Amino acid sequence: MKREQWSSNFGFLMAAAGSAVGLGNLWKFPYVVGMNGGGIFLIIYIVLLVLLGAPILMAEMSIGRHTRLNAIGACQQLNKNWGFVGFAGIFGAFIILCYYGVIGGWVMKYLFTYIFTPGINKPDEYFQNFSSSAAEPILWQLLFCAVSIIIVIRGISNGIEKISKIFLPLLAAFIIIIAINSVSLPGASEGVKFFLIPDTSHINSFKDIFSIILNAMGQVFFSLSLGMGTLITYGSYLSRDSSIQKNAFYIPLFDLIIAVLACFAILPAVFAFGLEPSGGSGLIFRTLPYVFGSMKFGRICAVIFFALVFFAAVTSSISLVEVIASYFIDSRKWSRPKACIIPGIVFAGVGITASLSFGLLSNVKIMGESIFDFLTILSDKILMPIGGFFMCILTGYIWGMPEMFREMSSGGKYKIYFRKTISFLIKFLAPAMILIIFITSFI
Ligand code: TRP
Question: Exposed (0-12), middle (13-18) or buried (19+): which is 347, by Cβ within 10 Å?
């Protein structure tokens, strides 16, 4: 059977960017920046994006397009003992989906609140009450999971591509409007300074620095959807008429622009309304209602904005579901619906405990962390860096750089720039950096 393909490179780019741009940019980046001291984090993030993110992105896309297989199958084809890398990726995708649905559900709740009510008066209290209640967040979370699963059942170019093509450009345009509004609030300049000017005064030890670097690395992997086989899977549907290198340039660039714009929308408002930038995972939900409250046509803007965030979240979560489903379809010969629904029941089920960890189960700790935080740490700071590390070793030493470049060039059709640098990054610098950051942060 001929493998499905993206209908065009633009479609692929939009789908891959759709996977990358998601809650990671809009929900997570602003609060991680807030918790890690602002400007200094931004600089470290951009450095790691270039040195780690882009090369690993190329490696994953090349492996996928070369083998035309799912994450496990692809790694196994390169070397029969290396299936574990793909397996770790699929496991990681599961873990992410468990908590992704919780936040996706919150976004839906806010979207519907703005559609059906005039607005949110006391954002802090409102968020606190909602996130800690038992039943309602779970219902929204399950709904979010159901939407993602249904789209993936409908198939790749049919579902994923169509959605991303339309909403991504819209999202970019709309965040700019909100960012302009937020920056022009009285008192907003403190937030702009916090975000753009590196301030080292609160860094007291090496430990602080390494913790910021580890967080930045986790964020690079999470935001670009790396280390979990997503780009292997998406690359496996990519035509040889596309330039992998070009895609590996545009995807991180687009991803970064959206993340930076999200910070311009959130952080100035955080300062303007006297909130705490280190407020954690509720930051955008506590902050944005103030911004919309102060805007002309605030309610309409809120509806459009949360709808766009919802789409961004869906196009990312479908990429995670696709990683898992394509394994069961290719290797276990399951039908597409079965390969989506059975894993879906499992991650939605585990996700319920993550949702409850904001309320009913807030006392349950795994290694000192709430269930939700434990899942995020496990995926961002452990599984993804490990996945990225092995992806580099697999590509650099087992498959070999010449093979990767051959795939990237589509048999000589595209010129590859910076060959030596890319080889150096994939074979030495990226794995060494991951190892050092990883080990130092655990001792
Ligand atoms: N990158 C997405 C975001 O920013 C999340 C995501 C989708 C992801 N697929 C992934 C993260 C695969 C890691 C691996 O929201």
Answer: buried
Q: Which two tokens stand for residue 399?
A: 């498959």
Is residue 2 one of the residues assigned to a domain?
no
Place of tokens 């993804």: 384
Range of the domain at 212: 9-442
Q: Rounded to two decimals, what is the model's pTM?
A: 0.92
CATH number at residue 71: 1.10.4160.10
Give the pLDDT confidence of 354-400 residue by residue, as tens digits. 999 999 998 999 988 999 999 999 998 889 989 999 999 999 999 99
Per the domain annotation, does 1 fall within a domain?
no
Tokens of 12: 């692929």
User: Does the CB atom of residue 316 touch ligand 1 within 6 A?
Assistant: yes
Q: What tokens were used for 188?
A: 């907003």
Would you call 1 exposed, middle or buried from its count of C-beta atoms within 10 A (0-12, 13-18, 19+)? exposed
Q: Whose CA is nearest to atom 13 of ligand 1?
A: 225
Cα(223) to centroid of ligand 1, in Å? Answer: 6
Radius of gyration for the chain, computed over Cα atoms and rounded to the nearest angstrom: 21
- Say if ligand 1 is within 6 A of residue 181 CB: no
